[in-house]
Write a structure and sequence with these properties.
alpha+beta, two-stranded antiparallel ribbon, two-stranded parallel sheet, 46% helix
């Protein structure tokens, strides 16, 4: 179940990256335009609990925005995080 939830995070942000470039909507006092502007390198640390979900919460939005990710899992995390990074 954890991996299914993590997959849904990757799918959500992949869809957002494809559909929201230049997408605009009116807001009070102006107009909001979503723009893909990467920050660069994002250093991210995840805890030991539910590592697949925690990695998805960190990696998916950063990659969708065009950033590079340096992920540091907890040393007690499961091997699923290492497998994810290996591929």
């Amino acid at each position: 179940l954890d991996h299914q939830f993590a997959i849904s995070q990757y799918r959500y942000f992949a869809a957002a990256a494809l559909t929201h470039e230049g997408f605009g909507r009116p807001i009070p006092g102006g107009y909001l335009v979503a723009k893909r502007e990467p920050y660069g390198v994002c250093g991210q640390i995840i805890p030991w609990n539910v590592p697949a979900i925690m990695a998805a919460f960190k990696i998916a939005p950063a990659i969708a925005a065009g950033n590079t990710v340096v992920l540091k899992p907890d040393e007690n995390a499961s091997l699923s995080t290492l497998e994810l990074c290996r591929h």
